[in-house]
Amino acid sequence: MSSSETMRAMWCERPETVEMRHLPVHEVGDDDVLVKVAYAAICPWDVRAYSGLSSAVAFPRILGHEVAGTVAAVGNNVKGLEIGQPVAPDMIIKCGVCKACRTGRANRCQRPTFLQYGGGYADYVRVPQRNIHPLRPTTSLKAAAMMEPLACVLRGQEMLRLYPGEVELVVGLGPIGLMHLQVARNFGARVIASDPVAARRDKAQALGAEWVVDPQATDLGQTIKEVTGGWGADAIALTVGSARMVEEVVRYLAPGGRLNIFAGIYPKDQVHLDPNQIHYGEWIITGSADSTPENMHRALTLIESGQVQTEALISHILPLPELASGFELVKNRVGQKIVMEVNGDA
């Protein structure tokens, strides 16, 4: 690939502004892989960063970290990858040497590198080979673009340590909640799915939820009592960022129940819980954030085996220049997963 070639990139000079620019294609180092982006899905984090609500995000930048595409070029030291091979890149580069990376918590890497100018809303991204996850030739690139959010979901679900036949409550049925539902079912759990939006409840039912609840029309706690014989939920995945919801759903836990606070809560807030309930109930309250390369590998296996249907969560596919419109859809909670078609399957 010629060093004089340019690529389209959706450039965010400052919060709430995005424009298409033509920038030089990334130079490929000896250990790097250049990926031609097929699809890049929108994460709510992208929208929060774009909206200027994260003080940790530096501008200008190119956003986008849920990506799938094909190998366009490789460095001199790269082995085992071919030009045109389908792949899903991990867009956060872990240092590999800090205590977190060395103890199985690379998701909490103390010295990560975020690709400020190399995000997925562009024709090409460049990552080290160790950040590349090869795909089967038959894998849908649209489905694989959601490897990263599914990996985060899988990490949270693994913390719940489900046993077959247990009952899990999933609160919030956006794309993340619907992935929690599917992973829980693959672990053998029966799922109660709760969301006030009818279309989301319908999708949850189609994906295998045993019970669906409109919490605005039905007493969720009473429903849980009825379906569990008064025992309670063995596990709860809370995908809604609300301190009040933490306080509400914890009451639905069974003895020995586990709660995963999956969503970050902004603005920051306090949670008020009765420690005696935690003590006598033997509850386990966990959080989970981001994912490790191992989580991503297992998530990709779930996608490629058809055990988790990520492509079924896509409600809108928009051309790359309409990225701002995609952000607005996510901000206004329209549809489900919004995916940007960058170069498509061509």
Written description of the protein model:
- The chain has helices at 44-50, 99-102, 141-144, 147-160, 175-186, 198-206, 220-228, 243-249, 275-281, 293-304, 323-331, and strands at residues 6-11, 19-24, 32-41, 66-74, 86-89, 92-93, 113-114, 124-128, 132-134, 167-171, 190-194, 211-213, 233-238, 253-261, 284-287, 314-319, 337-341.
- By secondary structure, it is an alpha/beta fold.
- Strands 3, 4, 5, 8, 9, 16 and 17 form a 7-stranded mixed β-sheet that branches. A 6-stranded parallel β-sheet has the order 12-11-10-13-14-15, sandwiched between helices.
- Helix 6 (198-206) links the parallel strand 11 and strand 12 (211-213).
- Helix 1 packs across helix 11 (323-331), helix 4 packs across helix 5 and helix 4 crosses helix 10.
- The longest helix is centred in the middle third of the chain and has 14 residues, at 147-160.
- The two termini are 17 Å apart.
- The model has no long low-confidence stretch (mean pLDDT 96).
| Biggest β-sheet strands, sense, barrel | 7 strands, mixed
- Helices, by number, come to 11
User: What's the total number of strands?
Assistant: 17
Content of β-strand = 25-35%
Arithmetic mean pLDDT = 96
Helical fraction equals: 25-40%
Low-pLDDT parts are none
Separation of termini?
17 Å
Radius of gyration from CA coordinates: 21 Å
> Structural class, from helix and strand content?
alpha/beta
Could you state the order of secondary-structure elements as H and E?
EEEHEEEHEEEHHEHEHEHEHEHEHEHE
Shape: globular
